[in-house]
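Inverse folding, one chain.
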């Protein structure tokens, strides 16, 4: 786990992030790599907006962006000097996450966990473009978050 902090906001610790990522991979078990490395970068809204505009063509900051290491879902790559697959990079904007948590009446920590789990699933090829995909992804998120002691984020 590589945790980068490029913002002034409070961010989950490396240990907390590692637990969230590990639990997500554990819950996927046979459907996922079982383990993996990931970079999580916490950014200010300006950087989030720039990346969102460049890569998703949406000119606004967002809660989480996922950049899978592999071109195709299911492909795994390993970085030199590592024996674990590199899943990719997550970029999280804590000020957006905290604003959303307040608007939705959720705890800051629970919503940060949800964004991390959601991002990891995107790195592994999960998406929510169709109702079927969304239902599958959301059911995994609910299960992972429950195993971490957080409530259903969609309730």
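Residues assigned per position:
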């Amino acid at each position: 786990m590589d945790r980068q902090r490029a913002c002034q906001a409070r961010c989950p610790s490396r240990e907390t992030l590692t637990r969230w990522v590990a639990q997500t991979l554990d819950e996927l078990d046979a459907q996922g790599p079982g383990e993996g490395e990931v970079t999580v970068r916490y950014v200010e809204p300006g950087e989030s907006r720039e990346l969102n505009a460049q890569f998703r063509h949406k000119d606004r900051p967002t809660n989480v962006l996922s950049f899978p290491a592999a071109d195709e879902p299911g492909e795994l790559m390993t970085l030199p000097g590592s024996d674990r697959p590199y899943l990719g990079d997550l970029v999280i904007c804590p000020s957006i996450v905290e604003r959303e948590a307040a608007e939705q009446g959720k705890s800051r920590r629970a919503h940060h966990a949800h964004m991390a789990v959601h991002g990891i699933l995107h790195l592994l090829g999960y998406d929510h473009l169709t109702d079927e995909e969304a239902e599958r992804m959301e059911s995994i998120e609910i299960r992972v978050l429950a195993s971490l002691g957080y409530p259903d984020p969609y309730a």
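Strands lie at 2-6, 37-43, 64-68, 77-78, 85-92. Residues 51 and 88 are 15 Å apart (CA to CA).
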